[in-house]
Design goal:
- Helix 2 links the parallel strand 2 and strand 3.
- Helices cover about 40% and strands about 15% of the residues.
- By secondary structure, the chain is α/β, with parallel strands linked by helices.
- The chain has one domain: TIM Barrel (Alpha-Beta Barrel).
- One of its GO terms (cellular component) is cytosol.
- It holds the Pfam family Bac_luciferase.
- One of its GO terms (molecular function) is monooxygenase activity.
């Protein structure tokens, strides 16, 4: 089993290459948004294809807004658990701040049973805040909600009797939460953005991290990865893996990939930007994100593979999660992007990094 060979000294995890989707709602033939049910079934087909083609991981994100179809990723993953055979199944991310850690464990230990031990969780705050008012939570408690719920989840994941108390929810005293996992371990990551406090907190609990790089230059996150490794060493958790989540699209040539992807990427970024008060993204700025230094992995298989390998080596990462869906990008193009990522990008990344398959 091969190890990463970049600047990430102490990282001994095998290379893993996988996919992420949020169930982005594309448009139908008449130009109107597809029904969410249709999109969810498309996600199942995409995950099944990723499994058949030998990718290592398939992640489904949680959102509570009309441009994404998936609000209950564990339910989607349960469907995939019984229709796939080898691929690991997880989230990207589970919004822990607005969920109950005990129920999170129960749902994913159930998916773990259905999948014969292939389930995992990535918890985080999420990129959007719609879940807070939806579930009656105050944004004034934004920091405390995540901090305390992560602490409770860490106790539950031990699969032993525990007692816990905090300031947000009532205290709990319980035996091992049911159902337990067959292996006694449910792999759990923490999804982080760019804040040092987040990676230090994850290291304290001994959780691996997935760094979401969705803008700027990927190499700019090297200090964050280095901080995580130093914090892991301080807390006695050396050797934990680092993952990367970034968007992109693969096609036969660089020109075709950009032509297919750019309109959907621009539309999505401008929509989110208008909600958050940002200036509209220009086409030049979007293309800059697709450059070798940018955070969008769009191009031919060789272009994408070289960029993925370079990012993993700089950050010392052992997993790359390719967010292949974006905005209204149609299902057919997503399926072709998955095929090219699995059949051409993944082997090339392993060749460039001198690594074998994870499984």
């Amino acid at each position: 089993m091969s190890e990463t060979s970049g600047s990430g000294a102490g990282t001994t995890a095998p290379i893993e290459l996988g996919l992420d989707t949020f169930g982005d709602i594309a448009l139908g033939a008449d130009g109107s948004p597809l029904p969410a049910a249709t999109v969810i079934r498309e996600v199942l087909a995409e995950g099944q294809l990723a499994d058949r083609l030998g990718l290592d991981f398939f992640g489904v994100g949680e959102h509570h807004r009309p441009d994404y179809a998936v609000s209950a990723p564990d339910t989607v993953l349960a469907g995939l658990a019984t229709t796939t055979t080898r691929i690991r199944l997880g989230t990207s991310v589970t919004v822990l701040s607005s969920d109950d850690p005990i129920r999170v464990f129960q749902r994913f230990s159930t998916v773990d049973a259905l999948s014969n031990g292939r389930a995992e969780i990535t918890v985080g705050r999420g990129s959007f805040i719609e879940s807070f008012p939806l579930f009656g939570l105050s944004l004034d408690d934004y920091e405390a909600l995540f901090s305390e719920k992560l602490d409770l989840l860490a106790e539950v994941l031990k699969e032993e009797p525990f007692e816990w108390s905090g300031t947000i929810r009532p205290p709990v005293s319980a035996g091992p939460v049911m159902p337990p996992t067959e292996s006694g371990h449910l792999r759990t990551w923490v999804g982080v953005g760019g804040t040092p406090q987040s990676v230090v907190r994850a290291a304290q609990y001994g959780f691996p991290v997935v760094i979401a790089i969705i803008g700027g230059q990927s190499a700019a996150f090297e200090p964050l990865a280095d901080l995580y490794r130093r914090a892991c060493a301080q807390f006695g958790h050396e050797g934990l893996p680092i993952g990367v989540h970034s968007p992109g699209h693969v096609a036969a040539t660089d020109e075709q990939a950009v032509e297919e992807y750019l309109p959907h990427f621009l539309h999505q970024m401008r929509k989110i930007g208008s909600e958050r008060g940002w200036a509209p993204m220009s086409e030049a700025a979007a293309r800059a994100q697709m450059s070798p230094e940018g955070a969008v992995y769009c191009g031919s298989p060789d272009t994408v593979a070289r960029k993925v390998a370079a990012t993993m080596q700089v950050l010392g990462a052992s997993r790359f999660q390719f967010k292949y869906s974006n905005g209204h990008l149609p299902h057919g193009l997503r399926m072709e992007s998955i095929r090219l990522f699995a059949e051409e990008v993944a082997p090339r990344v392993r060749e460039l990094m001198g690594a074998g398959a994870a499984n």
